[in-house]
Amino acid sequence: MKKIEAIIKPFKLDDVKDALNEMGLKGMTISEVKGYGRQKGHTEIYRGAEYVVDFIPKIKIEIVLPADQVDLVVNKIRAAANTDKIGDGKIFVLPVERVIRVRTGEENRDAV
Amino acid sequence: MKKIEAIIKPFKLDDVKDALNEMGLKGMTISEVKGYGRQKGHTEIYRGAEYVVDFIPKIKIEIVLPADQVDLVVNKIRAAANTDKIGDGKIFVLPVERVIRVRTGEENRDAV
Amino acid sequence: MKKIEAIIKPFKLDDVKDALNEMGLKGMTISEVKGYGRQKGHTEIYRGAEYVVDFIPKIKIEIVLPADQVDLVVNKIRAAANTDKIGDGKIFVLPVERVIRVRTGEENRDAV
Amino acid sequence: MELNTGDTAFMLIATALVMFMTPGLALFYGGLVRSKNVLATIMQSFLCLGIVSLIWVVYGYSLAFGPDVGNVIGNLDFVFLNNVSWETGAGRTIPDILFCAFQLMFAIITPALITGAFAERMKFPAYLLFVAAWVSLVYFPVCHWVWGGGWLADLGALDFAGGTVIHINSGAAALVCAIVIGRRRGYGRDAIHPNNLPMTVLGAAILWIGWFGFNAGSALTAGPIAALALMTTQLAAGVGALGWVLAEWKIQGRPTTLGAASGAVAGLVAITPGCGFVTPVWAVVIGGVAGVLCYLGIILKTRIGYDDALDVVAVHGLGGLWGALATGVFASVGAKGLLYGNPHQLTVQAIGAGAAIVYSVVVTFVILKVIDAIVGLRVDSEGEQQGLDVVEHSEVGYSI
Amino acid sequence: MELNTGDTAFMLIATALVMFMTPGLALFYGGLVRSKNVLATIMQSFLCLGIVSLIWVVYGYSLAFGPDVGNVIGNLDFVFLNNVSWETGAGRTIPDILFCAFQLMFAIITPALITGAFAERMKFPAYLLFVAAWVSLVYFPVCHWVWGGGWLADLGALDFAGGTVIHINSGAAALVCAIVIGRRRGYGRDAIHPNNLPMTVLGAAILWIGWFGFNAGSALTAGPIAALALMTTQLAAGVGALGWVLAEWKIQGRPTTLGAASGAVAGLVAITPGCGFVTPVWAVVIGGVAGVLCYLGIILKTRIGYDDALDVVAVHGLGGLWGALATGVFASVGAKGLLYGNPHQLTVQAIGAGAAIVYSVVVTFVILKVIDAIVGLRVDSEGEQQGLDVVEHSEVGYSI
Amino acid sequence: MELNTGDTAFMLIATALVMFMTPGLALFYGGLVRSKNVLATIMQSFLCLGIVSLIWVVYGYSLAFGPDVGNVIGNLDFVFLNNVSWETGAGRTIPDILFCAFQLMFAIITPALITGAFAERMKFPAYLLFVAAWVSLVYFPVCHWVWGGGWLADLGALDFAGGTVIHINSGAAALVCAIVIGRRRGYGRDAIHPNNLPMTVLGAAILWIGWFGFNAGSALTAGPIAALALMTTQLAAGVGALGWVLAEWKIQGRPTTLGAASGAVAGLVAITPGCGFVTPVWAVVIGGVAGVLCYLGIILKTRIGYDDALDVVAVHGLGGLWGALATGVFASVGAKGLLYGNPHQLTVQAIGAGAAIVYSVVVTFVILKVIDAIVGLRVDSEGEQQGLDVVEHSEVGYSI
Ligand SMILES: Nc1ncnc2c1ncn2[C@@H]1O[C@H](COP(=O)(O)OP(=O)(O)O)[C@@H](O)[C@H]1O
Ligand SMILES: Nc1ncnc2c1ncn2[C@@H]1O[C@H](COP(=O)(O)OP(=O)(O)O)[C@@H](O)[C@H]1O
Ligand SMILES: Nc1ncnc2c1ncn2[C@@H]1O[C@H](COP(=O)(O)OP(=O)(O)O)[C@@H](O)[C@H]1O
């Protein structure tokens, strides 16, 4: 089993979700994160003082899935999340040793 | 060393924490995430328009621990988080290569 | 490729960021998490009732990078995040199999 | 009597201020629940502005202030506000319709106060029925007894601005509600924390300014007694806040912001019946004691174990009772209490309070049982888990 | 006439209350947008307090209330408030400067209302120009027609507190704004959720109390008519909230908190023109119908598909129109409507409403086109994505 | 004099409005700090309502307004409000107790203003002692000098509603506080961002409406001067907001919402001493200049480097000073300033301001040093890190 972690722009979440849905992938976990990278942040002003805010809101998507689906899903995510602008994000693939569904105790392929 | 990532229902957090505490496991990191899966979301209404909200609040628990404790902990989590309803969540086990305690520099088994 | 996950005290974020910046490492993703460990939480009072809050705000930093930079970065983070007090946090190193930049499709070393 | 523009100006604004208290209460209560119930809790106060306004026009004002029937209730002469003029009537220097509007605001906030007891678990239809039934069967009669020419007025009970009619009455009903509907899921085990304490402080501030309209406005004229009532109200509120904060500092080791806000409300409740009858120095005492007493009432509640979610019993019930009795002790302006040689007054105050409590407890109990039989009082366990906002209103409070 | 301290006291406070409505509106609107636009939205209401105050002193009051020129506009006798005394003038018992201040508050809130239509996408400089131009070219003339001795006053149009001048006028302008500026990015596809509904309820509460100053204050004296207006205002607001909530419960299966707040505002809008002319029972009808009608107006909007972001058209336009016509039907105090034997009044009301709509639509359209040509109306797509707070103001609303 | 119901009605409500300012300030300040200090900051304003109310009854009113002793302080005739009647006294048409209540509200907000200077780091016990000592040793004397028949009154200093007594006085004290307590940890390095700017705008709105009670109420009668003061207050606030926004747009390239709210407060501060003495056009000038000036004061602070956390010095100190001098220049109603042929007035204003500054600086310094010796002024570094809410009050502001 593998885990895909994708860091994307927040407004692309719906597109990515729809793309994955279409290919029948119906499970994922998302969280709000902040990214630091090449994409420039914005300036904030507070009573005469200015601050540059480097950390930019991003969405992290986590999907655990059988290894044979990784390529397909990575491509789908890339296609949906891409805007050709700096800051579109990254996809990481990590190994997963075991997957268990809490409710049934099913494992691995059956659990996702 | 291994890392357990468990996605559970928020109101089960205290039960899981207590169960792990009992067995002497005293370190973990949690975060608020949103899950998408078989469990149905709810409807929101805004001035005449209806939206289905698919993303459901979940808690993600991360525990890094020696490999030999994985089975025990996975079982404890399952037992405590299970409500026999769809959406109870998943447990993932990932390999970890190194663990360091910031304060002391201790590594691996000594660091958790 | 490897992934470093560091759990640190929130007010140390700027120091860590600056330290990594200096060594030329310019990409990371952070999130707000809550930690449970040896560090004691605080007490909250609500109309005569007292609760101990065990979960303490922490920042999780995630950095994906080539394996050969891991040691250096781990040391930098330790040096910057250390206050010699309980609760300074942990650093975990995990294996990563693939890294893809969404925008360009570049992989691994080129993608971070 | 002839219309006086000063009195009318004062009462117009006082009425507006008392209206403002109900959304103030909505925010006060809304800040104290978990964020999954913030809107449902706000709704349960806010919608009283609609339900009670409608009933008031149809028959409420008439039952409360219509010509007396047997010393217990008004007749139906004023249904649909027939015969309520916008000219001044007998014995008042303000238009009748303005008195009617002023009193409406009191009728609105009283059931809203009770909703704190059953917060975070009541079904919305049950809530609607409860407010309509309770205001009709409990509030209008008790209001008539005290202010509409009923038997408590005849007895000589002192209630300047509604200690008995509003606070003891709603506090007693709240106790019944808390017990009948039962504890919130996880009560006593899970930490049930306020979602937004700054909002609660804001609510307290709105209640405070509104209470000037409530208490000083109850003089119905812009004269010395209104001025006295405003001063005593301010002092009791301020010193109530201090009292609560110092008590919890002493007992729990920490002075809290919620304690300051709660203590101010406790002081306001306690001064309500006596605000126009006592001197400023006694207002300090009444407020200070209220702050400590209501705090202790909450500690006691935790020991006993009923789940009065937002502490209506301790703050309004206990605070109102203390205020009613204190009026019988300290009154010296326009009436005399125990300390000024009239122990009888204290007895009368106790009778008034006792009557309101007994009546309110019994009728509230019956109302709840009937509603439970018709639509059910409580959302199911899963709904309570998810929160009333999503389950009952399909909304969420914040997306910040 | 001689100064009356009661009337003056009342109008001083009424003026303060109407001022309070504009920040109330800022919070009402601010709670409804996404959190990335909360400050920009608040700013667009709040800054009207500055822009319009300045213009009012320079020439605004003079155009609206200066000696009449050709039945359509005031002359320049009052520029820089020359010749505006702090003593009482002819026909009023309050200082002239107080009347001027009271009217200023109306001029402030009217353009602020419109900003709801173009929320979440208007450029800040365009907003500034729009408010200055609109208040000068649309508000002052229409205000003069109705209240400054212009042709609608001569015709006998009834508008107690500004149904035509303020609500129909701003509602019509809002429709043009929504269409000219176009839909928000993602409108109809993405879920665009309110960021803070408790804040919206707070805003509604502030509007409500402010509206007592607005409506009752329009009597300009603390007498029977002010009292009547206060009562009808309360009833229409309360029953408006009920009406909306019941309608959506019936149609969508859920009663919402936002519905209660919106319904209260709808009721307040609808009673505005008739608050001093109708009896309480008709106020219940006007408010209840407004709640249902404005809700249906929003459903209709969704069908038609223009993006009036915060529903100014449905609530103020439609609600104001219903109120203006209802005044022509139900008026019985100081004037007679259709139901009381005077069908002519309904015609006059329709003419007044129609004139305001046509004038407002045309001039608003021209203003928008000119501003678009000069500075552009709309932020670019990327800026809209990021949110106006960061892009236009370099601020974020919350760091909680 | 005989009681006038119009004047009394006005002052009752004005008093209520001034009370409302202190929780308004709590929210204004509360929104500006980091969320870990939101409650402690609110508490430091809110609890002044308790502390000062209590002291006022015991000896405060007597020191400030009791029969004069040597032109510098009142005697003890009014302790426990003895001899303060609810009938009208000499020279006023409202009850004495109402005047006493109105003045109480001023005494409450003045120390609350100062708390902005030491926000996010003061110990709670030190705060309590500070407020009690400062109001006793600084506020009551200075208040007596100007309004209680002291030497500044004799000199002919103009201070309609408290520019010197309240704003210059608290601004000077704030400067001392900021310097003595020292900078916040991380000041100048870490970004210290507001947690809730909508709440700050709400606070500004409450301050604004309260200020009508504050300024117009200082006329003590519902007549032409109150009306003038209300108008000048509105104009200065509105144009102050505009002025600040335009200045920062010019200098920093962005107009901010916080700038609008701050500018409104700056305008309100600056018009306070002159609101009943200047004409509307000068109010526009006073407010507009205040907006720009106070903004520049903040830029200057950043350069100098003391940490006046919420900018009390720049807004209240500088704004108040400008207002006091401007009154000496532009006064024309009931008194004459430089521009109207009386340069002497400007000298008197400068003396008044100077005296207040010197006295406030010296006594505040001594008070702080004494408190520091007794309980310590500042929480330890770890506590500051964790935030005052948890450390001092065992609470958290939000669980959203
Ligand atoms: N080395 C890294 N490790 C973890 N996350 C990273 C890393 N580099 C970038 N990111 C994440 O990816 C996001 C986008 O990266 P950025 O450099 O801005 O642009 P791009 O995606 O076009 O390369 C960042 O905001 C951050 O969240
Ligand atoms: N493939 C997956 N990858 C990551 N997280 C998943 C995946 N599938 C489900 N989840 C997480 O598990 C939660 C529960 O899944 P769901 O399908 O609703 O029910 P069940 O746990 O009973 O299988 C989801 O809300 C989501 O957070
Ligand atoms: N076994 C673990 N797995 C995951 N996270 C852990 C684990 N143990 C500790 N942590 C995280 O590290 C933080 C610090 O741990 P703690 O035991 O308080 O002190 P120290 O870092 O000094 O060992 C915790 O708050 C938690 O977030």
UniProtKB/TrEMBL annotation, chains A, B, C:
Its cellular-component GO annotations read: cytosol
Fetch the Gene3D superfamilies from UniProt.
3.30.70.120
SMART domains per record: P-II
Which Gene Ontology molecular function entries are recorded, alphabetically?
A: ATP binding; enzyme regulator activity
UniProtKB keywords: Nucleotide-binding, Phosphoprotein, Transcription, Transcription regulation
Keyword Transcription regulation, does the record have it? yes
Keyword hit for GTP-binding: no
Which GO annotations describe the biological process of this protein?
regulation of nitrogen utilization
Record-listed O-UMP-tyrosine modification sites: 51
Q: Which Pfam families match?
A: P-II
Protein family per UniProt = Belongs to the P(II) protein family.
Subunit and partners? Homotrimer.
Protein name as it appears in the record = Nitrogen regulatory protein P-II 1
**Which organism does this sequence originate in?**
Desulfoprunum benzoelyticum
Automatic annotation (TrEMBL), chains D, E, F:
Q: Which InterPro entries match?
A: Ammonium/urea_transptr, Ammonium_transpt, Ammonium_transpt_CS, NH4_transpt_AmtB-like_dom
Places the protein is found: Cell membrane
- Any stretches that span the bilayer, and where are they? 12-31, 38-59, 94-114, 126-148, 160-182, 194-213, 225-246, 258-275, 281-300, 312-334, 346-368
Q: What family is this?
A: Belongs to the ammonia transporter channel (TC 1.A.11.2) family.
Q: Which UniProt keywords apply?
A: Ammonia transport, Cell membrane, Membrane, Transmembrane, Transmembrane helix, Transport
Task: Specify the domain of life of the species encoding this protein.
Answer: Bacteria
Cell membrane among keywords: yes
* Name of one Pfam family that matches: Ammonium_transp
- How does this protein sit in the membrane? Multi-pass membrane protein
Cellular component aspect of the GO annotation: plasma membrane
- Domain Ammonium transporter AmtB-like positions: 9-398
Write the protein's name: Ammonium transporter
Q: Provide any one GO MF term from the record.
A: ammonium channel activity
Cross-referenced PROSITE patterns: AMMONIUM_TRANSP
